[in-house]
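Q&A FORM
Asked by: J.P.
Topic: structure of Ig-like domain-containing protein

PROVIDED:
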Amino acid sequence: MLQNGGGMIQRWFDAWVLLLWIVALAVQECWPVGAIQLTDINVPEIVDLRATVTLACSYDLQNQKLHSVKWYKGNREFFRYAPAIIPPLRTFPVEGVQLASDGHQCNAFVCRIRLTRLERHSGGEYRCEISGDAPQFELANSSRNMTVEVLPQHDPIISGLGATYHPGETLEANCTSDLSSLGTRLHFFVNDKPVPIEYLQPPHETTLDNDSYLLRYRTLEMHLPVDRLFPKGVDHAKLNIKCIAAIDSVRTTAGRETATTVTVQSHHWWIVMGGSIHSGGHRSRVLPWSQIAPLLSLLIITSLLNLAPILTPISRLLSWR
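REPLIED BY: S.T.
REPLY: Here is the structure written out as tokens.
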């Protein structure tokens, strides 16, 4: 009898297991559970030593519950978000990693953290890892590298330019970049056109040792003849002089730039002002007679003095005859 009763219980147990398995399959067909996915990770490639940096990863749980989000520097975990555990946030000390006190925002879709007080050791590989809840506990992760440097904080400086130039003169100017731990490329532009290399001197670099960084700044010198810019007959024009400082390694950051304006005038501009060198040129404007008369007198006297060597022999010849 005991054996028969035990066999009956075993058959009932097997039937229940089979029924639960069938129900589980039906539930899975109605609510399919796919593999969780880490859809995006945002870790800046190069950051400034003085900046506060945001790291972020986004994920798709595919109808699963989130078990945890973990951030690693190298192989060392420094941040964990587990919503089912109290407290849900935990941090762990790692060299070069300093979390901002209010610098986290994590939920079932995205996890953002902020790093502050960066140093040289803050650079390295950062990895985001997400895991689903029981019973699968699926994992997904992705990583990016970040480098900490001293980047320029100010626009380049243009020096050495005058306010007004005349034909035959030369535009001489220097462009100096801000301090940086990375090499800086300098470019001169005149009216948005790059200055040809034959009018530029090789860049000069100065270095300064500052703790763990070797800082540097560069100076580019330009010697550009005014006659190279305009055809003969141009009376007056404005030149826009621009210098752009860019860093080779930073592809996502626009270069810093500085611009200034100088004037080019012909020598007779003081008598007749105006012209039509610009597409929207203005009509000529004649100066008042009170300003022209002294200049004309000076020109007449100068012309007579220049003709004196010629007029003297002629007057003697006429008097002899």
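FOLLOW-UP: Confidence is low (pLDDT under 50) at residues 23-33, 269-286, 308-321.
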